[in-house]
Design goal:
Elements lengths: L1 H9 L4 E3 L9 E3 L2 E7 L10 H10 L3 E7 L6 E6 L1 H4 L15 H7 L14
Parallel strand pairs: 3-4
Antiparallel strand pairs: 1-2, 2-3, 4-5
């Protein structure tokens, strides 16, 4: 993502990292909503359902930045309005349910067993 941020800075655009906000893109930059995908070499990139839906909703304001050779000699590829230009294949993804420790501990019954258990005679 640093390559994309550096490019936006070089272009004189005001940029803000929003990657932790689950907005469907990583960077807001002077009217652009930018999703960044990095590749060690070349190949397909994967967008989440949220990213693809957001791309369709935002249209020309949504940009996909693909960074190839990200670990050696990064090259940046820009695609404006990818939902209108690209034809992705759909792939079924396994859904995982993550339950925070504070939540499961609230409802769990803790029991002693093995060497830590005490025997009632």
């Amino acid at each position: 993502m640093q390559v994309a941020i550096a490019f936006e800075q070089q272009q004189g655009r005001t940029r803000r990292d929003v990657s932790q906000q689950n907005l469907g893109y990583d960077i807001e930059s002077s009217g652009r909503c930018i999703e960044v995908k990095g590749r060690a070499a070349v190949g397909a990139v994967v967008l989440t359902a949220n990213e693809w839906i957001t791309a369709g909703r935002l249209g020309a304001d949504y940009w996909l930045y693909v960074v190839t050779a990200a670990l050696s000699q990064p090259k940046l590829h820009l695609i404006q309005n990818p939902a209108a230009k690209l034809k992705p294949g759909e792939e079924v993804d396994v859904v995982r349910y993550v339950i925070p420790m504070t939540d499961w501990q609230t409802w769990a019954e803790s029991v002693a067993f093995g060497a830590n258990s005490s025997k009632n005679s």
